[in-house]
TrEMBL record:
The lineage of its organism: Eukaryota, Fungi, Dikarya, Ascomycota, Saccharomycotina. GO terms for cellular component: cytosol. This is DEKNAAC101302. Belongs to the peroxiredoxin family. AhpC/Prx1 subfamily. It comes from Brettanomyces naardenensis (Yeast). One of its GO terms (biological process) is cellular response to stress.
């Protein structure tokens, strides 16, 4: 399934009961901001998915769940589906993940459609990661689970990864089981990353799309004037300008 395997399962019949039985914690990949997102192939609700082929030249949001038919996760998957046109407008592809079998995913989608979509079609793939292989690649386990990784089955944590078109990880957020994700924050971060990449700027606290941005201290006043035109200096290191440039 993967180009490089970190698992040594003795037999297919034992796969469900010996997950991570020979897991080597020393080989745990370290996925940080700026890391290249590990590629993988996995079954999903729309068929076999290769992450890199699925994303193509688009941005991507990969978000994980420990199990199907869980209340918080159900609301999250539904909200991402409802907001898919917003992600589409930003050139972003959504990819969910849950550590259950594919057949359960298909049943769960029906609940999500009923609760959040008014019966409308569910509109993005959900990966089946029942062997926790993607969870391993992306370090989607809690500290407690990691310490018990060789003792039997574990649950994945609820992580969000924003991946840019160069397959670099640009954001990682991990939530505890009791706290629902903020989908508006995911969109806000994507807006910030995209305007930053386009203009070479950074964004201040609570920034929203269309608001003034910050010129990095590495850009001289002369270069800032040439690139942005007018800007406001609050401190020598804190200068604001409009995201609408003259170039």
């Amino acid at each position: 399934m993967f180009a490089r395997s970190f698992f040594r399962i003795p037999s297919k019949s034992l796969a469900a009961s010996v997950r991570f039985l020979t897991f080597d914690a020393a080989k745990q990949p370290r996925v940080r901001i700026g890391s290249t997102a590990p590629n993988f192939q996995a079954p999903s609700t729309v068929g076999e998915i290769d992450l890199y082929k699925y994303l193509g030249n688009s941005w991507g949001v990969l978000f994980s769940h420990p199990a199907d038919f869980t209340p918080v996760c159900t609301t999250e998957l539904g909200e991402f589906a409802a907001l898919k046109p917003e992600f589409d407008a930003r050139g972003v592809k959504l990819l969910g993940l849950s550590a259950d079998e594919l057949g359960k995913h298909e049943q769960w989608v029906e609940d999500i459609k009923d609760i959040s979509l008014g019966g409308k079609k569910f509109n993005y793939p959900i990966i089946s990661d029942s062997k926790k292989e993607v969870a391993f690649l992306y370090d989607m386990v809690s500290e407690d689970a990691f310490n018990k990784i060789n003792e039997g089955p574990i649950a994945t944590v609820r992580s969000v990864f924003i991946i840019d078109p160069k397959k670099k990880v640009r954001l990682v957020i991990t939530y505890p089981p009791s706290v629902g994700r903020n989908t508006s924050e995911v969109l806000r971060v994507i807006d910030s990353l995209q305007v930053g990449d386009k203009l070479g700027v950074v964004t201040p606290v609570n920034w929203k799309k269309g608001e003034d941005v910050i010129i990095p201290p590495t850009v001289s006043n002369e270069a800032a004037k040439e690139k942005f035109g007018d800007f406001k200096t609050v401190k020598p290191y804190l200068r604001y300008t409009s995201p609408e440039t003259k170039n």
